[in-house]
Design brief:
The structure holds 2 protein chains of 2 kinds. By secondary structure, chain A is mainly β. In chain A, 0% of the residues lie in helices and 50% in strands. Chain A contains no helices and 12 strands. Chain A has strands at residues 4-5, 10-14, 19-21, 24-25, 31-38, 44-50, 56-58, 64-68, 73-78, 87-95, 105-106, 110-115. In chain A, strands 2, 5, 6, 10, 11 and 12 form a 6-stranded mixed β-sheet that branches. A 4-stranded antiparallel β-sheet of chain A has the order 3-9-8-7, with no helix packed on it. Chain A has a two-stranded antiparallel ribbon with strand order 1-4. In chain A, strand 8 and strand 9 (73-78) form a beta hairpin. The radius of gyration of chain A is 14 Å and the shape is globular. The N and C termini of chain A lie far apart (41 Å). The model of chain A has no long low-confidence stretch (mean pLDDT 90). Chain B is mainly β. Chain B contains no helices and 11 strands. Chain B has strands at 4-7, 10-13, 19-25, 32-38, 44-51, 57-58, 67-73, 76-81, 90-97, 104-106, 110-114. In chain B, the strands form 2 sheets. In chain B, strands 2, 4, 5, 6, 9, 10 and 11 form a 7-stranded mixed β-sheet that branches. In chain B, strands 1-3-8-7 form a 4-stranded antiparallel β-sheet, with no helix packed on it. In chain B, a hairpin with a 5-residue loop joins strand 5 and strand 6 (57-58). Chain B starts with a strand and ends with a strand. The mean pLDDT of chain B is 90. The chains are: A mainly beta, B mainly beta. The interface between A and B is medium-sized, with 23 and 22 residues.
C-alpha cells in the first residue's frame, strides 16, 4: 500500500521567511500528487497538484512544489510566508490510473505557524 | 468552483444512538464520494469509497455495519454512525470527486462527540 510521509509536524516561522515542507511517498508506479491546506476552522482546499509534465508546479497564493521522481518527493515551497499562511498542510497521493486508484492517501500534516 | 456541503458541522449524541451525516455536492455531480476520519494531530484516514448506486467499499478495519454509507444520488452521500460509542467521537470529513481532472472537493467536516 502506498504511504505518505511529512517530515515536519510543526513548523514555526516569522513573516517573510522562506518555507519548505517535505513530503515523500512510497509508491513506485505512476502517481498524482497534491498539497492541501486547512485553515483554522475551514475545510481542506487544494493548493496545487501534479499529474505529469513540468515537475515544478505552481499553485495558488504563491506556493509551488517540485516533483523529484528519483527521490519520491514532492516538497512544498514558498519564498516569503505571511501571517495568513498559518494553517495545516497535507500532502496526498493517488496512483496514476483510474478505478480504485482514485483513493487519496494523506500524510499526517504539517502545522505551520507564522508569527507576525 | 465546486462546492461540497457537509451537515451537521458538529453533533453531540448519547451512547447507543445513531447519527447521520450528509454530504452534498452543490454544483456538480459526484461520481465518487469518500469518507474520512481524522483524529487529533493525525492524518485523514480513508474509511470508505462510495459510487452512486452501488455499495460502498470499506477500508480494512472499518466496520461496515457500524458506519453505513448510502450514495443514492449523484449529489448526496450519507454516513450513519450506528449505535455510537465514545470511541467513535472524531472528526468526519467527506470528499466528492467529479469530472475528469482528478478534482477532489472536501466538505467542512463534522465533529462528532458521543457522550
Amino acid at each position: 500500500a502506498q504511504s505518505v510521509s511529512q517530515h515536519n509536524h510543526h513548523v514555526i516561522l516569522s513573516e517573510a521567511a522562506s518555507l519548505e515542507l517535505g513530503c515523500n511517498y512510497s509508491y513506485g508506479g505512476t502517481v498524482n500528487l497534491f498539497w492541501y491546506v486547512q485553515y483554522p476552522g475551514q475545510h481542506l482546499q487544494l493548493l496545487l497538484k501534479y499529474f505529469s509534465g513540468d515537475p515544478l508546479v505552481k499553485g495558488i497564493k504563491g506556493f509551488e512544489a517540485e516533483f523529484i521522481k528519483s527521490k519520491f518527493s514532492f516538497n512544498l515551497r514558498k519564498p516569503s510566508v505571511q501571517w495568513s499562511d498559518t494553517a495545516e498542510y497535507f500532502c496526498a497521493v493517488t496512483r496514476g490510473s483510474g478505478g480504485s486508484n482514485y483513493k487519496l492517501t494523506f500524510g499526517k500534516g504539517t502545522l505551520l505557524t507564522v508569527n507576525p | 468552483g465546486a462546492v461540497v456541503s457537509q451537515h451537521p458541522s458538529w453533533v453531540i449524541c448519547k451512547s447507543g444512538t445513531s447519527v447521520k451525516i450528509e454530504c452534498r455536492s452543490l454544483d456538480f455531480q459526484a461520481t465518487t464520494m469518500f469518507w474520512y476520519r481524522q483524529f487529533p494531530k493525525q492524518s485523514l484516514m480513508l474509511m470508505a469509497t462510495s459510487n452512486e448506486g452501488s455499495k460502498a467499499t470499506y477500508e480494512q478495519g472499518v466496520e461496515k455495519d457500524k458506519f453505513l454509507i448510502n450514495h443514492a444520488s449523484l449529489t448526496l452521500s450519507t454516513l450513519t454512525v450506528t449505535s455510537a460509542h465514545p470511541e467513535d467521537s472524531s472528526f468526519y470529513i467527506c470528499s466528492a470527486r467529479g469530472g475528469g481532472d482528478y478534482g477532489y472537493t472536501f466538505g467542512s467536516g463534522t465533529r462528532l462527540t458521543v457522550v
